[in-house]
Design a protein that fits this description.
This protein has 9 helices and 10 strands. By secondary structure, the protein is an alpha/beta fold. It folds into 2 domains: 8-83 and 160-240, P-loop containing nucleotide triphosphate hydrolases (Rossmann fold, 3-Layer(aba) Sandwich), CATH 3.40.50.300; 96-157, no CATH class. Helix 5 packs parallel to helix 6 (172-185). Bound molecules: adenosine-5'-diphosphate and magnesium ion (MG). The site of adenosine-5'-diphosphate has 11 residues, from strand 2 and helix 1.
């Protein structure tokens, strides 16, 4: 009998900065084409854990595997080449280029000119971004810029997409559209989405992993998580602090 190898497997990951333990013995397993949300109050360690997955940080302890291959300590570009696409909290688009050109820059990696163009058109259509294709990204609304950036990630056809707070700073309409877009991408790709906004989690999430003080507080279906008193307490506790 062959064993099922998960797409992503983090085992006992710990990240310390001097005396601060930002991530404390976190394990997480993600299957092919799974959508996972990481939530938790500010300072819970979500972004730090995210960065250990992307190669931006080398964990102090623990191992990270992609389809069984140990990738712990690899550099971000090496991890990207293994089929992982990343959108961090820091914007990564060229404001002086159009949406089309931004996606083209990404799509050109490893493709002929004709193949790249076809991929740009396919990606813009899939995310319903054709109306802004010829506009300069610097002149788009905040939400539209975020979607263009997600398109640049998708155009590289990663098997796994990691998004850190994709709905941050968005209007309610933009948050709803971002949720739709993530669900569309999840038809073909696995995603790990770090998000603070509970409304957004409600719109997209299936399985949710809750972080608190560097540890996994719970992991369950979104409905169970949102109904859990401990989760309410850590959010309300933070909001009141
Ligand atoms: N580069 C760093 N150096 C020192 N401390 C850090 C660094 N990055 C994050 N931290 C600390 O780690 C903890 C978790 O932060 P972070 O992962 O950004 O939380 P979240 O994304 O859940 O808001 C916080 O206490 C933060 O101050
Ligand atoms: Mg963060």
């Amino acid at each position: 009998m062959s064993e099922i190898v998960p797409l992503l497997e983090a085992r006992n990951v710990t990240m310390r900065f001097g005396g601060v333990t930002a991530v404390d013995d976190v394990s997480l397993v993600l299957g092919e084409v799974e959508l996972r949300c990481l939530i938790g109050p500010n300072g819970a360690g979500k972004s730090t854990f995210f960065k250990t997955l992307t190669g931006q940080l080398n964990p102090t302890e623990g191992r990270i595997k992609l389809r069984g291959q140990d990738v712990t300590g690899l550099l971000p570009n090496q991890i990207a080449r293994l089929g992982v696409g990343i959108k961090t909290q820091i914007p990564n688009v060229f404001n002086g280029l159009t949406a089309y050109e931004n996606v083209l820059v990404a799509a050109q990696r490893g493709r002929s000119a004709a193949m790249a163009k076809a991929m740009v058109e396919k990606t813009l259509a899939r995310l319903r971004l054709e109306p802004v294709a010829r506009r300069q990204v610097g002149q788009l609304a905040h939400g539209q810029r975020q979607w263009v950036e997600i398109a640049t990630v998708l155009a590289q056809e990663p098997d796994l997409i990691l998004l850190d707070e994709p709905a941050a700073g968005m209007t309610h309409e933009e948050v709803e559209r971002t949720a739709e877009l993530i669900k569309e991408i999840n038809r073909t790709q696995a995603l790990v989405v770090v998000e603070h906004d509970m409304q957004f989690i409600r719109m997209i999430a299936q399985t949710v992993t809750v972080f608190n003080q560097g540890k996994v507080l719970m992991e369950d279906h979104v409905d169970a998580v949102l109904a859990d008193q401990r989760v309410r307490d850590v959010y309300i506790g933070k909001a009141a602090a």
